Amino acid sequence: MSDKENAPAPAAPAKGKAPVSRERARQGRRKALRTILLTGGVLGAGLSGYLPLVYARTSRLRPPGALDEKEFLQSCIKCGQCVQVCPVNAIRLADLTDGFGVGTPYIDAREQACDFSCDAVQCILACPTGSLTYDKPDFLPVRAGAALPQKPTLIAKMNDPEPTLNMTERMGVARLTRPESCLAMKGEGFKGQARGPGFKGRMRYVKVDRWKPIQVADHPYDVPLCDLCMRECPIAGAISLEKFTGPDGSTRARPIVHENCVGCGVCEMICPTEPASIAIVPREVWKS
Question: Which of 26, 102, 132, 159 is an S-S bond match for 127, by CB 3.0 to 4.6 Å?
């Protein structure tokens, strides 16, 4: 008898189950793929509704004169007019990660602060809806601690007939968030470019040019005791240094933020430590 005759017969298909054809297998794979994609789409849609709620809790530093966050998001039409008039390009438009706030203007102070190079706060003048305003309408109350004690005096305008900025509420408040890294607190000086040669941020240095901002990298420093936050603050009397003697007998200094701080972010931008020792808390109110 031949081997072929001795070979066992092929197993019969299980009762009630027909063999699966290649075409049917492909159809099954396609159906499974569609199910996976549909599930991913549903999850993505769910997250798109959830992310705005998450990022709504993330405080953004808004341009000068911004209404409180709820009213700001309701009234801002995301036209970008404020972005176009800023002389130092401090104002950016939020991307998709901001959820409901996508397209609204904000300032990343560490990258580029508002140094009031425009003098008249042009972003407020350019806003067509009142989302940025000099004075809130009567039906919108001013939060306790948000109002400035008086109109801030701009150091660059000290010799002008009207040296103040037409601002009534602060953008935020500067805080010494990392005193352990502050060079002044450690009694150290600073020499060189505040943020390194590659930093693109710009600022108006009145002694260099009254009107034209220059790159921070083009203005190196050489100070025996670091005072850059106070030195470059554009608002008169907003930051001072309180000197004290360290345990080793060295002269040290503590940056003190005063009530007329408007929260512009220049101190955060110019701080030479990484990360910055002083930072702006957006929408923060003054607490005596």
Answer: 132
**Lookup: tokens for 143:** 């939060």
Backbone angles phi, psi at 86, to 5 degrees: -70, 120
Task: Give the range of the structural domain holding residue 84, as residue numbers without chain letter.
Answer: 69-282
pLDDT value at position 11?
A: 55
Structure token digits, residue 193: 């470019």
Query: Are 139 and 130 a contacting pair, CB within 8 Å?
Result: no
**Per-residue buried b or exposed e for 46-70, using 16+ beta carbons within 10 Å of the residue's own CB:** eeeeeebeebeeeebbbbbbbbbbe
pLDDT at 15: 55
> Comparing 98 with 215, which gets the higher pLDDT?
215
Is residue 281 within 8 Å of 264, Cβ to Cβ? no
Is residue 237 one of the residues assigned to a domain? yes
SS (H, E, C) 180-203: CCCCCCCCCCEEECCCCCCCCCEE
pLDDT tops 80 at residue 28: no
Show the DSSP H helices in the chain as ranges.
3-6, 22-55, 69-75, 81-85, 122-126, 228-232, 266-270
Q: Quick one: DSSP state of residue 226?
A: -
Q: Is 8 domain-assigned?
A: no
pLDDT for the residue 122: 95
The arithmetic mean of pLDDT across residues 157-176, rounded, is 95
CA distance 32 to 28: 6
- Region of 192 (left: φ > 0; alpha: ψ -120 to 50; beta: rest) is left
- Is 49 within the bounds of a domain? no
| Sequential DSSP letters for 56-84 | TTS--BPPTTBPPHHHHHHH-----HHHH
